[in-house]
Amino acid sequence: MSTEAAATPNLAHHFPNLEQQEHAARLGMWLFLATEVLLFTVLFTAYSVYRFLFPAAFAAASELAHVAIGATNTLVLITSSLTVALAIHAARQGRRKATVALLAVTIAFGAAFMVLKGVEYAHHFADGQFPGRYYRYPGLQGPGVSMYFSLYFLMTGLHGLHVLIGMGVLTWVALRAARGDFSPSYSTPVELGGLYWHLVDLIWIFLFPLFYLL
Amino acid sequence: MADAAHARSHFGPAHYLAVWGALVLLTAATVGVAKVEMPHWAHVTVALVIATGKAGLVALFFMHLWEHGGAIRLVLVVSVLFLVLLIGLVLADNATRFQYANPPYSESWGEAPFEAVAPPMQDAPAKLEKEAEPR
Fold first, then answer.
1. In Å, how far from its chain's centre is CA B87?
2. Scanning every residue of chain A, which has its alpha carbon at the shortest distance from the alpha carbon of B70?
3. Are both B51 and B4 inside the same structural domain?
4. Size of the A and B interface in Cβ pairs below 8 Å
5. How far is B97 from chain A (nearest CA, A)?
6. Residue B131 domain-assigned?
7. B86 and B97 share a domain?
8. B58 inside 8 A of chain A by CB
9. Chain segment A151-182, per-residue pLDDT in tens
10. What's the CA dihedral at B9, B13, B17, B23 to 10 degrees?
11. Looking at beta carbons, which residues of chain A come within 8 Å of B6?
12. Cα A25 to chain center, whole Å?
């Protein structure tokens, strides 16, 4: 065991080998992702309740969403999921430059997503489409409309925060990859950072139809 | 056991590209279907089915659930179970309430009080001083 520990500097002393360490890390990450899913579940529940109570208001308010920007952002996130999956693949093969480049592209997609989201928010703010009692858009008034915008800003805002955190995590992973920390036998941080990014994509996959299309 | 762990990924760039293509097609499909004339419940159902399909593709292939089984799948299944329980039971509560136990002017209040008292839902500029009903 001591010989293996000496041969593998990334192995923590309480794991017998790298495989077990990787399994434990992956399971821990999935447990964390489950808590993230449950965090958003509560918000999706709030959305379901108010959509159920005010179906006409929600249908009318979602007409005010910018479908073209939302659809573009969906494609941006899906493509960034592809590039991060390819980055993990490259890291497992020990291709350092490819890993760093693919992670950089992923981060750039994340930034593009945030810029588009900002443009969208600016449009809403310019029209007076604020959350809750601050909603003052004259073109659409009625009970339930302001709830749509409360939930819209809360859920896409929290999701945007996750995009920013994901960009931070991937930046850290990319810096480590550039430093040469990863090898075919050890690329767990790339994989776990990628898992977080995929979860961000997964949540958006549900947010997009609920707020833009229905 | 060690062999299984060493087997690692059976998926290469070609597979990931195929999954990406499917995700793009499904995105186009959900945007396209939203414009088709259908009853509201059908729109909701189709959109949720497509979104679940896309989420499944991401989870199975991008997140490697296909190749990593066991406890990880259990974690996902349990979190989805709680998601369904929470949304399902809370909606069941709202759907079976005495009408005035739901917020004013919500769907269960029926047409008459909505028309009579609620600020109108319209596309033309409404009276600005009339704020949305406080909850």
1. 11
2. A27
3. yes
4. 176
5. 11
6. no
7. yes
8. yes
9. 999 999 999 999 999 999 999 999 999 999 99
10. 30
11. 19
12. 20
Range of the domain at B41: 1-68
Tell me the per-residue pLDDT of A14-31, one tens digit each, with 9 for 90 and over. 888 888 888 889 999 999
Residue with tokens 């059976």: B10
| Domains in chain A with CATH codes | 15-213 (1.20.120.80)
Q: Which two tokens stand for residue B85?
A: 């329980």
Chain B residues inside the 8 Å CB shell of A92? 8-9
- Residue A35 burial (C-beta neighbours within 10 Å; 0-12, 13-18, 19+): exposed
- Look up residue B105 and give its DSSP letter: T
Q: ipTM of this predicted complex?
A: 0.89
d(CA A9, CA A141): 63
Q: Is there a domain that residue B128 lies in? A: no
Rounded Cα gap, residues A26 and A11, in angstroms: 15
Q: Is the per-residue pLDDT at A89 higher than 90? A: yes
Query: Rounded CA gap, B127 and A84, in Å?
Result: 50
A27–B contact, CB cutoff 8 A: yes
Q: Has residue B130 been placed in a domain?
A: no
Distance of residue B1 Cα from the nearest chain A Cα, in angstroms = 10
Please name the residue of chain B whose CA is at the shortest distance from the CA of residue A57.
B121
